[in-house]
Amino acid sequence: MRTALTKRIVASAQPRERPYELRDAQVRGLLLRVQPSGHKAWIVTWAHGKRRTLGAATHLTLDQARAYASQAMAEVIQQGLPSIAKPERPRCTLAAFLDDHYEPWAKIELRGGQHYVERIQTHFPSLLNRQLSEIDEAAIDRWWRNRVAGERPVAKATAARDLASLRSALSKAVEWKLLERNPLLGLRQKSVESRKVVRFLSAAEETRLRAALACRDQRLISARASGNRWRAARNVQPMPEMPAGSYGDHLTPVVLLAMNTGLRRGELLSLTWADVDLDARMLTVRAENAKSGRQRHIPLNTEAHAVLAQWASQAHAMGRVFDVASVKKAWTGLLTCARIGGFRFHDLRHHFASKLVRAGVDLNVVRELLGHASIRMTLRYAHLCPGTLAAAVAKLAA
């Protein structure tokens, strides 16, 4: 039976031999429970056997209890369960989450997972000791302003990649029930100006680049020969000979292969000789080394085949094709020698695609060779085939 509870009724409710309850007639689900000891507590119930205590009547007034009960019943209608009934999530700092949960998972499940963990640890030091639930939009806005306009500012694109790493990690925290919601999902995407021009080599630049590679190889071969003469004069074990026509080191085959296959730098440097089939004139990019996570096969044209055949004779065709961690230093020196500015190693991939499109290769074929997940990324090269587009429009006249 429901009672129109008032402050006087609540205050004058007397204890009995056994506990009893007074149901509020105004707010559905609100009860006043009176114990034989005289203790009075507000309780909200939303289904048979489903109830939670709101607090003691000495601490919560009737109006406050009604407000809490109304909110709980609204949550039942919206979510099926009031927030007071949800189990409390374990408290966990960002640093502890990364060490105990995210890093062990990322190392196994993500290609380059350790890199993402280290990126968060390096670029979000002010958040590491915060509870996951304390990371909010305001904290991220402060971090963003300091990252792009602080003492050591970085490009917005770099800051956006940092933010994407954190956003992805917090999404896993939500999935693992360590966080109720990802505070970064509702954050307005930071504006990052994309590179407007697809950079590729002009004919003159490509000529200078190839000449710089040949000059560099010749310099390295001459240096090896000079060094071996010095060693021979002193009865020191000589280094392996570099015959004329060989490569001075890994840089020339890496660059020429990138120009003729469109492989990303990471895909190139992770190739093993088991991925190269010189007889079938084909190389394979394994799924675990591909950005898209999909395996693909790249045919070798004449130059790419000759480059790999020559390099195989020098590198003995065992293990990794290019046993180096980075080409950054050598690449920077090469561009200086070739007098080429504003050109990244990744732009060799654009150069490969642009030559295909200008030769009339269908964009979808280009997409397959580049390993793009969708045609949208490949469409950036569409303007390079004006003849094909004009021919398509001309068909309407017929």
In terms of topology, how is this protein built?
Blueprint: E1 2-3, H1 7-12, E2 20-24, E3 30-34, E4 40-47, E5 50-56, H2 62-79, H3 94-109, H4 113-123, H5 137-149, H6 156-175, H7 203-233, H8 251-261, H9 265-269, E6 276-277, E7 282-285, E8 296-299, H10 302-315, H11 328-338, H12 347-358, H13 363-370, H14 375-378, H15 386-394
Parallel strand pairs: 1-2
Antiparallel strand pairs: 2-3, 3-4, 4-5, 6-7, 7-8
Helix pairs in contact: 3-4, 4-6, 7-11, 8-10, 8-12
Rounded to an integer in angstroms, the radius of gyration calculated over CA atoms is 34 Å
CATH class of the largest domain: Mainly Alpha
The spatial strand order of the largest sheet comes to 1-2-3-4-5
Q: Output the CATH homologous superfamily of the largest domain.
A: Intergrase catalytic core
- The CATH topology of the largest domain comes to hpI Integrase, Chain A
CATH-defined architecture of the largest domain: Orthogonal Bundle
Strand content: 5-15%
User: What series of H and E elements makes up the topology?
Assistant: EHEEEEHHHHHHHHEEEHHHHHH
How many domains in all? 3
User: How many strands?
Assistant: 8
Number of helices: 15
What best-fitting shape do the alpha-carbon axes yield?
elongated
* Major β-sheet profile: 5 strands, mixed
Structural class: alpha+beta
Q: Unreliable stretches, pLDDT < 50, 5 or more residues?
A: none
**Percent range of helical residues:** 40-55%
Ends: how far apart? 86 Å
